[in-house]
Amino acid sequence: MAGGEAPISFGILGCAEIARKLSRAITLAPNATLYAIGSRSLDKAKSFAASNNFPPSAKAYGSYEAVLDDPDVDAVYVPLPTSLHIKWAVLAAKKKKHLLLEKPVALNVKEFDEIIEACESNGVQFMDSTMWMHNPRTEKMRGFLSDPKLFGELKKVHACFTFAADPHFLENDIRVKPDLDALGVLGDTGWYCIRGILWAADFELPKSVVALHGPIFNKAGVIFSCGASLHWDDGKVATFHCSFFGNLTMDITAVGTKGTMHLNDFVIPFEEGKASFTVSTESGFTELVTGWVPKPTVHTVAHELPQEALMVREFSRLVGSVKSGVKPEKKWPTLSRKTQLVLDAVKVSIEKGFEAVEIVG
To answer: What is the pLDDT of residues 58-76, one digit of tens each?
Structure first.
C-alpha cells in the first residue's frame, strides 16, 4: 500500500451466499484484508473461512458480537437479512466499526436514518454494497449522459431486473420470508432498478411515484413481482420492472433529446474484466427508411479488478482517510437514502391501491 499504510481489516457478520463474493473482493482489493468472520455457529464460521480463502491468521467467531468486540477489526461487511440491519448496523457503528452494508439498507427510511445517525455520531464511514456504482463503465456512461451535444436533456429512463427463481428459492430463500426480508423482490432487484434510474437522473429525486398495477405476492404477502413509474416536475418519466419470474435481464435505457444509451448487464457485467454500453446520437433513418443513420456505437471499458473489489478498494480508501483524521464521506449515505425513499414510496403506492405518492426528501 502507498505510504506503508496497513490494509483495512474486515470482519464479516454472517455466512450468507453473497458473503462469498465479498470475501473474494476483499482478498483482491489491495488495501483490504480478511480478518474475521462471525456466525451464530462457530463451526459454520470456521468452515466458511476455510472454504473462502481466509488467511490462516483470520479469526472465526461463534457470534456477531465477538466480531464487533474485536479491537483489530476496522470495518464490517453486513450481509444479514434486511430485518436485522437496524440492530447490527447500529451496534457496529456504536462499536466504531466502519460499515459496508448489503442492500436494501433497511426496511424503510426511518430505520435507515437511525443507522446513519449512529454512523455520524460515532464518526464511521458508511457505504451500501451496490457494486455496479464502482465499475469504471459507470463513470464513462455518466460522461455521455452529461454531454449536452451527444445526449442532450434526459427525458425517459427504463430499468428492468428479473431472474427466474426456482421453486426452492420461492419457498425457502430469505427474500421470500416476511420476517427476514419483507420487501421481497422490491428490496432485491427493485433496489438496483431504482438506483439505476436515480443515477441516470443525476440523483435528482422525482416528485412522485406510482406503482404499476399487477404486482404478484406470495401467500405471506411478500412481493414477487412489481413495477412503478417515477415523475419529475420538468416532465422526465422513468419506469421499472422487477420480478422473480422473468428470464435473467438487467437492462437500462436512458433517452435524451439528442441521444440514447442502452446497457443490458448493468448490475453484473456479462463477463469479468470488461463492460460495454451502446450509445446513439441524433439517430435517423436512411433515405428509404430501410436502416438507421448513424448506427449506434458500442463502447467497452476494461478494468483489472472486478467491480466488487473496486467497491471494497474505494470503501477502504475512505476508511483509511477517516482513520487519518478526515471526516467520513457523506456521498454514499446520501445516495442510499434517496434510493430507500423511492423504494418506500413504491411500497406505499402498492399498499394504497396504486395511488401517486409524493417524495418528501
So the answer is: 999 999 999 999 999 999 9
